[in-house]
Amino acid sequence: MSEEVTYADLNFQDSGRKKSIQEFGTVGIKEPAATSHVWHQRALALILLCLLLLIGLGILGSVFYITLKKEMRTLNTLQNIKEELQRNVSLQLMHSMNSSQMIRNLSLTLQEIATKLCHELYQREPEHKCKPCPKKWIWHEDNCYLVTKNYVTWQKNAMFCSAQNASLLMIKNKSVLEFVKSRNLRKYWLGLSPRKYYADYKIVDETIFSSDWLVRNTKDVDDTMFCGYINTIYVSYTLCSDSNNIICEKLANPVKIENTLMSEIPDEKYD
Ligand SMILES: *[C@@H]1O[C@H](CO)[C@@H](O)[C@H](O)[C@H]1NC(C)=O
Ligand SMILES: *[C@@H]1O[C@H](CO)[C@@H](O)[C@H](O)[C@H]1NC(C)=O
Ligand SMILES: *[C@@H]1O[C@H](CO)[C@@H](O)[C@H](O)[C@H]1NC(C)=O
Ligand SMILES: *[C@@H]1O[C@H](CO)[C@@H](O)[C@H](O)[C@H]1NC(C)=O
Ligand SMILES: *[C@@H]1O[C@H](CO)[C@@H](O)[C@H](O)[C@H]1NC(C)=O
């Protein structure tokens, strides 16, 4: 019985296996159709994906292209603005250069006017504040002159002038010659180079400009040398150890505009 059961079981088991085998076989035969369907779907999905990707790429490309175009336009605009700015800046630079030139011209003109005005004021009041020379000095054109009645040796005159940051009188141009003629100077030392030998007197005229004028005040002058002096309209020589009057000259300072604009009234109050 047990054997039978076992057989039956076996049989049953066998038939079950057969069935399963059969089922398996059915599946095996059925399979190719199902797979192609899945592949179809997958391929479709892939194609779709590819299409989507392509569309995406296209959109990205066009976005990129549009952006690039826009950026290029912006760049161009910026370039144009930059060029315009450069043009404007250089124009402004030229303008300000013109302006500073004009300011320079104006201040030069103002300085000239102030100097002229100061000359006028100086005629009326020789010690007016605007005068660009120290007190007691005479102002003539670009120069200041100190004319004193002190008889000293030529060397003492030279030393005195040095101490005043000035030099002996040298008649090198028309301006100084005019001053000399206007002052009728009686026996004043001149800044001529001392000579070993005596020289005759000469009338003061423009030929004096090319005389042997000092380059600087000399110290090595001995008592046997001859020095030049002016006596009214003549230039003469005498021993350097002789005595003549002191005269010095130096360059006038520029006229200070504010001093010219100041009225004379405050000065009169102090006087
Ligand atoms: C350049 O100057 C002109 C005229 O002065 C002005 O209209 C323009 O806006 C300026 N350009 C720039 C970029 O400042
Ligand atoms: C600068 O001045 C000159 C002449 O003095 C003139 O021709 C030029 O136009 C001026 N430039 C400016 C930017 O004002
Ligand atoms: C400044 O003066 C000079 C010479 O006097 C002249 O050549 C120049 O044009 C002037 N400039 C201006 C901006 O007035
Ligand atoms: C001479 O010049 C010097 C230096 O420039 C200055 O210190 C001195 O005060 C001046 N002397 C006179 C009398 O002007
Ligand atoms: C004349 O010469 C003096 C120096 O001796 C100088 O200071 C002055 O500037 C000169 N004047 C002219 C108009 O050249």
UniProtKB/TrEMBL annotation:
Membrane-spanning parts = 43-68
Q: Which CDD domains match?
A: CLECT_NK_receptors_like
| Gene Ontology BP term (one) | negative regulation of immune response
What is the topology of this protein in the membrane according to its UniProt annotation?
Single-pass type II membrane protein
Residue ranges annotated for the C-type lectin domain, each copy included:
140-249
- Where does it reside? Cell membrane
CC per GO annotation: plasma membrane
- Can you name one GO molecular function term for this protein? signaling receptor regulator activity
Q: Which UniProt keywords apply?
A: Cell membrane, Disulfide bond, Glycoprotein, Lectin, Membrane, Phosphoprotein, Receptor, Signal-anchor, Transmembrane, Transmembrane helix
Q: What is its main location?
A: membrane
Q: Which Pfam families match?
A: Lectin_C
| PANTHER family recorded | C-TYPE LECTIN DOMAIN FAMILY 12 MEMBER A (PTHR47647:SF2), C-TYPE LECTIN DOMAIN FAMILY 12 MEMBER B (PTHR47647)
Q: What name does this protein carry? A: C-type lectin domain family 12 member A
